[in-house]
Structures are given as structure tokens and as C-alpha cells.
Amino acid sequence: MNSGTSQGETSTGTVLSFQRSLNRLNTNNYMRLDLFKLHNPKLDNKPKKWIVAKGKNLKQNLGGCIEELTVQGWTKPKLCRYIMQKFGVSKPTAERLIYLRKSFYPLVFIEELLKLTNKLEAKFVIQDKIEFLKVSQPPETIVKAPKYLTKNLCKIAGAHAADGTLAKDYFCITDGYWCNVKSFKNWVKNEFNLDYKILKRDKNEWMIRFHNKVFTRYLRQIFGFCNGKKVYSVGEPEIIKNSNEEMRKAFALGALTFEAGLGMKNQIEFCVASKKFQEDICDILKLAGVRFHKMKNPSGGYWRFWSNTLTEQETIKWMELFEPQTEKWFKLHEAANGYQGKADSIEEAIDILDKVYPSKPNSKVSLKKVLLAIKHLGGAHRYKIVDYLVAKGNFKSYGGKWAHGLRHYLDILKQANIISIERRRFGKKKSFGTIVREVYIFNPEVSEWKVPLRNQLTSSDVVKSQVTYSLSSTT
């Protein structure tokens, strides 16, 4: 009798404990991630494939569930037989689970206990006790378990939507900027405590690649990304779309940091094959209050949008949608504040400018060539500069009738104080009036020049000794 009373009191205490925990749950349940979705019954059809969890007080809470079942009439041997039949595990395995002799417990087992005790609706009470996840089958990489939607997770999702590759338990992301891949590495480190090396894929591309079942399950089961080709169908995950503006902007940040274009033009461009992706990012831009032009029909199979010509105020708004200290963020910062760096020589200045504004493979002209042309000529209008470049490069023409192709190069050199502009008269027009042209004059005082400031320029050099990897290899 006393024993029964003791068990009843214990059961009541467990129920009250659960209720108190339930009452303490964050009311913003839409920000919670359902970790039990990480288990896929079709793919995880054997115990060695299960995802298992560990936490400081997890075992204690599981013990409370098992104790409550014994009050309801279950015995531990009966529970062992039930687990053996339900999941097809051996008797020793079932006993280690029911008698709590393990350090990690399968998510599917935890969920079954909640079902048996009619506490499935309070699963987040137990979930809050989960701190780490791993896969039963070696290699056993222990992963920190994110339980709430965070800005870093949304950035990861945005970057993957832009440039990630997902195939079963394999993940890879590539980009032409080392700093972008470094940012992704930091997001993953902060959220999952996973730390992977940045590899050099080829001369102008960097990558991170790895196998991790827990991480890839977050992308598939929580965010809804599919394996394989996603270029035509990818978009903003529903869990992010249904969250708050801060999380949606973080998703856009991840996507724009990797996918948006920002070169010499004072304009941001976005070009993707998925109409849904374009529309989702545009919806977020409206929330952020930035102005842009959206293409309503595809061009060459791609959906595009682009910013207005950026004013200082617009530039500052756009900066919030790019990861700080990455190349595109720096260019926006410089558009608003000017160049902040100095060079000790012409050679150093040219090297810095050439790294920030590299030559494009199909372009006849580069910033470096324009700078050297003006230096050679001393001072010249744009038609004379074009004539020099055409003769030097041995090609027929460049820049169009009015030599507008030089415009962005000249704007950068002017911003860097490498050239100044004077308006000069060049005789009379054939009809009437005087020909007035802008003459671009080379400034020989290097100490007066201002160049882009990049700490990252030396960061990529650290990785130059890395072996170049093939993306097709996943070992």
C-alpha cells in the first residue's frame, strides 16, 4: 500500500514537473525546431543508422517517462519486449535503453516513450534537454544540437540555396571569394560546433565539403531542401518564411553574400534559374525597405533583379543584407565611405586594385590596363585613352562610339584619387559652339592615393598551399 502511494506521489510529481516545464516554454513556438523530424523512417530502418541524442538532464527525464509507464502497469521486461518488437533490436540493446545504461539515446526511442506516456504534445520539454547529436554508425562525429531557429541557421540555409550541393549525407559549398566560404565555416562552427577546412578547388574558387548526416538532415528534414539538382526549384524554406523579419533577412543575407553580383558598377545584381528564389528574395527586400527593379520575365532562362544606382543611404541599407567583412560588404562600405587604404608604391596599389577588381577572362580591358594607359599618357580624354588601349592590345575597337566602356574604370580611379578631371576646350564644333571634353590627369603622388583596404587579401594566401580538389570527388 505504501509502495503504491509512493509510486503515485512520484508519478504526480513527474506530471507536475512536465507541466511546469511546459509552461516555461517560449511562446514563440514557430521559432523552435522539431529535432524528431531528423529521424527518417525509410532511411533509418536499422539501429546503426539512427540519430541519437545526449544531454545533461536527458536521462533523468527519460527515467521519469519510464517510471510513469510502470505506474500505468508496464514492467521494464515488458517494455524491453515492446522495444524489441517495435524497432527490431536485440534484447541487450533494448535493455540498455530501458534500464538507461547508454550515454546517447535514439530520437525514435525518445519519441516512442512520449507517445506511450501521451506526452507527445509536450515533446519540446524533453527536446530542451538534448544538447548533442550523432549517428550510431561510425564515424561518430558529435554535433551540437540547434533547437531554435537562429540567424546563423538562416544564413546557412540562404547560402546553401545559392551555392550549396546536397547528396545524401554529403554537403559541399563553393564560391569565388575565400571570405564568403570562411563566413560559412564560421556559421557552421557556431551552430553545430563542426569545423571543416577550406579547400582550394581551382585558381579562383574555394570550397568546404564534408559528410555529416546530422547537418544534412537539418537541411533536408528541417528546411526542406532536396538532394541533387535544385537550381530550378529552390526557394526560401517555409519555416523561415513563417518566422519573423529578422530571420528572413538573415536568409537573404546568406543568399546574397554568395549569389549577388557587385563589381565595378555601383549596382547589385541577382540572377538565378529559380523564379521562386527570385520572388522570395524580392519579398524580403520589400520588408527591408530597399529599392530594386525586378524582371517579370526570364532572360536567357534566368530570373533577375537589380538595385537602383546606389545612393549613400541606399548603400547603407543594402550593407545590412551582406555578411560583414566579406568582399561585397567591403565594396558597399567603400561606395558609402570611400576607400580607406594606403599604398607605398604604384606597384602595391596596382596589385591591390587588381585583386579587388580582377580582369575578366573575356574582357579586352582591365582596371590595371586603364590605369597604366593614363599614367603613360599623363593626361588624356577618353577617346585618346581608348585609342591607346586599342593599339596596345591589338584589337579593333572598344567602348562604343562615345567610349562609355571606360566609365566605371574611370570612376574607380577618380575615387582612389589616382586621377583628377579637368574640362578643356578642343576647338570648335563643325556646326557651332566649342568642343569641351573631360581630361583625365594622372596623379603621380602615391601618398595621396586611397585604395581598398582588405585584411582578407593576406588570408587567402594562407590557403594557397592547400591541394586543389575536384568537386566530383567526395572522399
TrEMBL record:
Domain of life assignment: Archaea
InterPro entries membership: Homing_endonucl (IPR027434)
Name of the molecule in the record: DOD-type homing endonuclease domain-containing protein
Annotated organism of origin: Candidatus Iainarchaeum sp
